[in-house]
UniProtKB/TrEMBL annotation:
It comes from Mycobacterium stomatepiae. The lineage of its organism: Bacteria, Bacillati, Actinomycetota, Actinomycetes, Mycobacteriales. This is DJ-1/PfpI domain-containing protein. It comes from the Bacteria. GO terms for biological process: regulation of DNA-templated transcription. Signal peptide: none annotated.
Length: 212
């Protein structure tokens, strides 16, 4: 069995974690576990949703990793337990991956030094300050270094499908895509900063300021 660990922390973004979970838990050869500083419930950035950590970092030593993002990542870049855990487990992962601002935690752990990477468009400057080189791609792969980063929130589903292909095979990834009926046909085309007009960006920033 392949074990995939998704670390959780207070004020994580739900879909960053649950999107990859929904993809990979469909595959019989993959186990998914939520880990954290302590066992028990962790609530999302708006406090509306709670998800349980079933193990602590100390209890999960050799997984593959999907690191979600969230408002709290800006503070967690200084958190020794999660940085030390990422450094330790990366030595034996098949792949270490991130979604959204989870890339900041990989960078803070020194795993993105000198590499191109992607993250949420609001975290670009901080990612660069932490030693990575931001590129505006939905998924960025460095397979020799066993690193994959995904952009904001929904891109975690795409990344998880690619990760499933790498861990199992293409047919497994396609089967997972069918099982979750992932066939995006959005009614708008404003899902990337380059595509959004000024009014849309202003509204998005307004909503982000309101939830801090």
């Amino acid at each position: 069995m392949t074990l995939v660990a998704i670390p959780l922390f207070p004020r994580f973004t739900a879909l960053d974690a649950v999107g990859p979970y929904e993809v990979m838990q469909r595959i019989p050869s993959i186990d998914v576990i939520f880990v954290g500083h302590r066992r028990g419930e962790v609530r999302t950035e708006n406090g509306m949703l709670g998800v349980a950590c079933d193990a602590t970092f100390d209890e999960v030593g050799k997984p593959d990793v999907v690191v979600p993002g969230g408002i709290a990542t800006r503070k967690l870049i200084h958190d020794d337990p999660i940085r030390n855990w990422l450094q330790a487990v990366h030595a034996t992962t098949t792949f270490t991956t991130s979604v959204c601002t989870g890339a900041l935690l990989l960078a803070a752990a020194g795993l993105l030094d000198g590499l191109t990477a992607t993250t949420h468009w609001r975290a670009v400057d901080l990612l660069n300050e932490l030693g990575a080189h931001y590129v505006p791609d939905r998924i960025v792969e460095h397979l020799p270094q066993r690193i994959i980063t995904a952009a904001g929130v929904s891109s975690g589903i795409d990344m998880a499908l690619r990760l499933t292909e790498l861990l199992v095979d293409r047919e497994a990834a396609q089967a997972a895509q069918l099982l979750i009926e992932y066939d995006p046909q959005p009614p708008f085309d404003s899902g990337a900063l380059a595509k959004a007009d000024e009014a849309t960006v202003a509204r998005a920033n307004e909503y982000l300021r309101a939830r801090k």
